[in-house]
Amino acid sequence: MAVQTFASTTDSANTVDLGPAAALSCRECGHRVPLGPVFACEECFGPLEIAYDFSGYDTEELRKRIEAGPANIWRYAPLLPVPADVATKPNLNPGWTKLVQADNLARELGVTGGLYVKDDSGNPTHSFKDRVVAQALEAARAFGFTTLSCSSTGNLAGAVGAAAARAGFRSCVFIPHDLEQGKIVMAAVYGGELVGIEGNYDDVNRFCSELIGDPAGEGWGFVNVNLRPYYAEGSKTLAYEVCEQLGWRLPDQIVVPIASGSQLTKIDKGLQELIKLGLVEDKPYKIFGAQAAGCSPVSTAYKAGHDVVRPQKPDTIAKSLAIGNPADGPYVLDIARRTGGAVEDVTDAQVVEAIKLLARTEGIFAETAGGVTVGVTKKLIEDGVLDPSLTTVVLNTGDGLKTLDAVAGTGLTATIRPSLESFREAGLV
Ligand SMILES: *Cc1c(COP(=O)(O)O)cnc(C)c1O
């Protein structure tokens, strides 16, 4: 990654108050710098992440404050890098999505220890991306940016467009030109600029890195590039919500989709914070990563026992997860191995089968990414890797209406004339 020390748009940007966030800290060498719109360590080029000072918190007071908070991610504001007065600013207020007790799916898969689907299709733009964008938006505001941008596999583009519309920002987002129609419409409808790039996501991302270094991109907040440390923290709220919804308890096993790997690493960070703060009892948990076989750089490295992730050229219907060169891949490998989890992949046919399985058992219509997590869960149980006697949470991170093509063969049971005779002839009674 190239070093980018992004010039602040205001002189005071580096001393801005971002709530309980204390500094940016390098994940590789631990070097600390003041909070600002930077994402790479000036010492070793490693990725920067938010470091907190939680020392003043009383566990029971914090629990009460969270429980009395709003039914969205801001109930966890004391644990997030946001300005204290966020509640008064226009934001889409995502989160606090349903944790569905999936007893029918559990029976089908032979899970006896409790199976839950965390259904993030219930967010404002119908994917988990609203969580991360909400954080990046507040950081953009604090740093004085007025244009929000991103490189996206589809869902992020929609989440940025919507958040920018509500907050009064300009938006200009970049996607691979050949995405699903549902994703393109969902990104374009909010009125921002949507640019299709002739290439895959990794080409789009490379283009955005160039744009950041160019005067053309000056003053732009790229939510997943120069605002990435703040953006990434949004994924912690998934971990917080799952634990709070389980009655302030850690799940034993959690199955998470992998695109860049950011979400998975921050779910681990969120669980670790809850343990440190005393909000949940400390016990072992396993994190499992899920990919599509047609874009499986992390599961390939996991199975080969490698520490480095070799880039792949994506070819899968799970386009929202189609990142061939995932930035957080090595950290995902660490977490899967440290927690006793695993990383697995499923074919496109298994993704489709899993979408239908979840829909038919629980009434949840997932996008292809949800097919990936449910499909991987099934495979890991069949292979004896995931323990069916333990409490298991599977993430569904997006809505099936965005990827209708994946289930294109699904349709009418019969076409009849409007008469009882014709209905009887159809053989349904
Ligand atoms: C972006 C995305 C993810 C996860 O992305 P990471 O880059 O790994 O954080 C998961 N599911 C859906 C539907 C997404 O759009």
Give your account of this protein's structure.
The chain is of the alpha/beta class and 429 residues long. The protein has a domain at 99-124 and 235-407: 3-Layer(aba) Sandwich (Rossmann fold). 35% of the residues lie in helices and 15% in strands. It contains 14 helices and 13 strands. The protein has helices at 59-67, 103-109, 129-143, 155-167, 181-188, 201-212, 228-233, 236-245, 262-276, 297-304, 329-339, 348-362, 368-382, 420-425; strands at residues 21-26, 32-33, 48-52, 98-101, 115-119, 147-151, 170-176, 193-197, 220-222, 253-257, 286-292, 343-346, 392-396. The chain has a 6-stranded mixed beta sheet with strand order 4-5-13-10-11-12, sandwiched between helices. A 4-stranded parallel beta sheet has the order 8-7-6-9. The chain has a 3-stranded antiparallel beta sheet with strand order 2-1-3. Helix 3 packs across helix 4, helix 4 (155-167) packs parallel to helix 5 and helix 9 (262-276) packs across helix 11 (329-339). The longest helix is centred in the N-terminal third of the chain and has 15 residues, at 129-143. The radius of gyration is 21 Å and the shape is globular. Bound molecules: pyridoxal-5'-phosphate (PLP).
Using the coordinates above, name the CATH class of the domain at 99-124 and 235-407: Alpha Beta
* Percent range of helical residues: 25-40%
C-alpha end-to-end distance: 63 Å
Give the mean pLDDT.
92
- The number of strands is 13
CATH architecture type of the domain at 99-124 and 235-407: 3-Layer(aba) Sandwich
Structural class: alpha/beta
Low-confidence stretches: 1-14
Cofactor: pyridoxal 5'-phosphate
Organism: Actinospica acidiphila
Domain Tryptophan synthase beta chain-like PALP: 94-398
Protein name: Threonine synthase
